[in-house]
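Postdoc handover notes: sequence design on the structure in folder B. Input tokens:
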């Protein structure tokens, strides 16, 4: 390259946009994902295991009914942690 030539400005270099474009897209996508996650929280699950079992024609034993409780409590705590 001729030492007296100026060259092109940095924003006109296509390789610069390849280098900066990928991380820029990731940053924008992370803000979009964050916005979607905070604007649409998961609803609290109120699950009546007995009603669901009757709907499909089964009955639950007390052990089966109690086995569902920890999973529902954990899911609801994640959906609304402020208690």
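Designed sequence:
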């Amino acid at each position: 390259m001729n030492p007296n030539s100026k060259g092109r400005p940095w924003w006109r270099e296509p390789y610069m946009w390849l280098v900066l474009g990928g991380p820029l897209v990731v940053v924008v996508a992370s803000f979009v994902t964050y916005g979607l996650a905070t604007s649409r929280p998961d609803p609290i699950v109120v699950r009546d295991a007995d009603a669901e079992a009757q709907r499909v024609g089964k009955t639950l034993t007390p052990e089966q009914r109690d086995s569902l409780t920890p999973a529902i409590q954990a899911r609801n705590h994640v959906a609304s942690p402020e208690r």
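Context for whoever picks this up: The CA atoms of residues 24 and 77 lie 34 Å apart. Don't rerun without checking with the PI first.
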